[in-house]
Amino acid sequence: MKKIVIIGCGNVGLAYLKKLCMTDMALNISLIDIDEEKLNGEILDLEQSLVYRNNNINIKLGTYREVDDADIVVITAGVSQSTNDRMSDLSKANKIIVDITKELRETAFKGIVLVACNPLDVITELIAHYTDYSYNKVIGTGCMLDTARLRSLISKKINVKPTDINVYVLGEHGNSQFVAWSNANIGLENLSKFLTDDEKEALEEETRKMGSVIVKHKGYTNEGVASCLLELTLCILNDLKKVYPVSNYNTTYDTYLSTPCIIGKDGIERVVNIKLTNEEEEKLEDSSIVIKEALDKVLPRELY
Are 81 and 215 in contact (CB under 8 A)? Predict the structure, then answer.
């Protein structure tokens, strides 16, 4: 059986866990969280729900020793979400990640790490740096979530299934993200045939603000990013070789940011090099600057 360890079982971690339980996979799942009493209740509740769904999933409270033989470690631990900029709680988030990675370094883990903690790109790079794991095996959900949000909005606008809309949000999972409209299409037709420039601009801005809108309404976001984590998990465990705009180490800009990557059993198996316009290249560079400036606040480059 494949083994997954979830570190941090708050709103996102539990949403991901519940989505795993709705699959037909045979899994051993270990949970690591500071609130073990609440987690015991969640485990009991889920175990009983699995009686009618999938008896091939085993869930238990774990320790970092469970990481030794895990296939995937999913890190969702972090600070509570707010409607502020994702960078605002970086110092607190970094302290949590320092503690987690210290524990990880003492294990024999050889698998793949999936990250869903904000500020996403910065935290993903910090995890890769602190653990010294291969870049292809430390993957952030990044703009995969923003891409899903954008495709959902476009789908409602033009009445086409989201799965048939080929468009990517790239760069930072944050305010400097941008849409690679030059590569966007439905079938072989450019998306410009379906949307005006004003409509594209409005959809891009709505996508950028979507996380804050959801937080304002329900207090946090969890279902969208949990679905991204599930999709990446399926890609890895089943070696699906699917393409998603995840946060990965970019050699050109020397930092983590989102570009399309092929995801399989070895994690990021290849970065897909898409041709961007000069304006889009500038936006990607701007994103890299935002991320590197945030990184420098907690981990100056001279310490690399």
Answer: yes
